[in-house]
Amino acid sequence: MTPITGMDLTGFIEREPGVWTDERGLVLSVHFFPQVPDLPAPLHEPERLRQGIAQGVGGRGGGLIEAVFGTVDKVPAVRQLIKVPRPGGQGQVFLGSWTVPKATCSTVLKVQAAEGATTGVREAMVMAQVGPAEYFRPHPYAPGLRDGLPCHVADDEGWDPHFPDHPLTLVRATLNRIAPSITLDERFKVLPPFGTPTPPAAQPPATGRGRLRRRKDG
């Protein structure tokens, strides 16, 4: 159960409650966390939040590609794109999420996809075009960061049209498509925002046992 009451699931098939997949290998899931969000800073402190996320992801061996602020059903939220080494094999897994944090809870939409048998093609082709000197760069949110996967220009959104089937392209496009279709339970929407003091006993509202409503826009 999550406060997400509807979204456009076109192309996805439900595999288990709260988890969907599509024919391209994307995995979409929705989550609810009944506890204070573990974000390193509130949304109104974007520089500290981005730096903290980048350092945390890097410290776990991954890399934060971007953290973008926006809204989900008019509620402030943060979109993250992260890359991590593929477990037990070569290549990377790309994880995208929209997190809607509240003072004592949060809801998250996640999309992920992994590289297949062929890896590194996007990176090699971009490096060949821009040159090694322009390829790698300091992390934009934490310039002194040395931990985790390297920061480079091949992860930029501007390269997505050149690699339409790459897992990063697919994850980013799916987040962009689905986010505007999400609807949230009104009781969740009016909860105090993350970063404001609330009584420890405050609990998020239950949303019932109904199945997530499928939306198909257009």
3D structure, described in words:
The protein is an alpha+beta fold. The strands form two sheets. The protein has a seven-stranded antiparallel sheet with strand order 2-3-4-8-7-6-5, with helices on both faces. Strands 9-1-10 form a three-stranded mixed sheet. Strand 2 and strand 3 form a beta hairpin. 20% of the residues lie in helices and 29% in strands. It has one domain: Protein Transport Mog1p, Chain A (3-Layer(aba) Sandwich).
Outline the secondary-structure elements.
Elements: E1 4-8, E2 13-16, E3 19-21, E4 27-33, H1 46-59, E5 63-72, E6 75-85, E7 92-101, E8 106-114, H2 121-130, H3 132-135, H4 167-178, E9 183-184, H5 186-189, E10 213-215
Parallel strand pairs: 1-10
Antiparallel strand pairs: 1-9, 2-3, 3-4, 4-8, 5-6, 6-7, 7-8
Summary of the model, kept short:
The protein is an alpha+beta fold and 218 residues long. It has helices spanning 46-59, 121-130, 132-135, 167-178, 186-189; strands at 4-8, 13-16, 19-21, 27-33, 63-72, 75-85, 92-101, 106-114, 183-184, 213-215.
Unreliable residue stretches = none
First-residue to last-residue Cα separation: 27 Å
Mean pLDDT: 91
**Number of helical regions:** 5
Structural class: alpha+beta
Give the strand order, joined by hyphens, for the main sheet: 2-3-4-8-7-6-5
CATH architecture: 3-Layer(aba) Sandwich
Major beta-sheet overview: 7 strands, antiparallel
Beta strand %: 25-35%
Our count of domains comes out at 1
CATH fold-level assignment: Protein Transport Mog1p, Chain A
Helices and strands, in order, run as EEEEHEEEEHHHEHE
The CATH class turns out to be: Alpha Beta
Q: Characterize the overall form.
A: globular
Rg over C-alpha atoms, rounded to the nearest angstrom: 18 Å
Work out the number of β strands: 10
Helix content: 10-25%
